[in-house]
Design brief:
about 220 residues; alpha+beta; wza like fold; Outer membrane lipoprotein wza fold like; five-stranded mixed sheet; three-stranded antiparallel sheet; 5 helices; 12 strands
């Protein structure tokens, strides 16, 4: 066998060996960290029935603290001060931007919105929560500890009482029915304390929103 033929046979054998030990090439994208299950869930679009929790901070002051709301059949959530905001079909980051725009029209400086999608709404307190905002010592959620709900006077006490600039004569209460409809009433708190009208001490239930406006001097 000539040297040329021998070299050809060796090359052919090397080619077979090399082809059997190929190395898979990867792009840099294949080595990017993959999102965990929780991240995948939180990135999903919001749908009717989902629950979110938001807080609104303006100029370092918490205007709305840990308010929870459930998307109705139309994809809307009812939020303190701004009312209905449509977030259905949006991812949490997109919903945060929309809510920031809604609150932005009420404040001179841009609000900071903190939004969390609640993955297990059923883990709420047994009797739920009432959200109180506006001119109280500790705005935010107040837990209901009785099947009978919570009285307005108790709610104000749990929220740290009225601030000095609170307008107690025009407390606004919003209640959302199961069908998504809303009922709003205005309560004069002075009728309860100063005039002794116990019927004015409204019984609040899970999901109610109580807003204490500021008195204009």
């Amino acid at each position: 066998m000539s040297i040329f033929l021998r070299m050809s046979a060796v090359c052919a054998a090397l080619t077979v060996l090399i082809s059997g030990c190929t190395t898979e090439t990867s792009t840099s994208g294949d080595f990017q960290p993959q999102p965990n299950v929780a991240e995948k869930i939180s990135s999903q679009a919001l749908q009717p029935g989902d629950a979110i929790e938001i807080s609104v901070e303006v100029d370092g002051k918490m205007e709305v603290s840990m308010h929870r709301a459930t998307l109705n059949a139309f994809g809307n959530v009812t939020l303190p001060l701004v009312g209905d905001v449509r977030v259905g079909g949006l991812k949490p980051d997109q919903a945060r931007s929309v809510i920031a725009g809604a609150y932005g029209s009420y404040y001179v400086n841009p609000p900071v919105i903190m939004l969390t999608k609640i993955e297990n709404p059923a883990e709420e307190g047994e009797w739920g929560y009432v959200t109180v905002t506006g001119k109280v010592g500790r705005p935010g959620r107040v837990k209901i500890t009785s099947s009978k709900g919570i009285k307005l006077t108790q709610l104000i006490q749990e929220a740290g009482g009225f601030s000095g600039s609170a307008k107690q004569t025009e407390i606004r209460i919003t209640r959302i029915s199961n069908d998504g409809s809303k009922k709003r009433i205005t309560v004069d708190y002075t009728e309860i304390g100063q005039e002794g009208n116990v019927e004015a001490d409204v019984s609040l239930i899970d999901g109610d929103i109580v807003y204490i406006p500021e008195r204009i001097f």
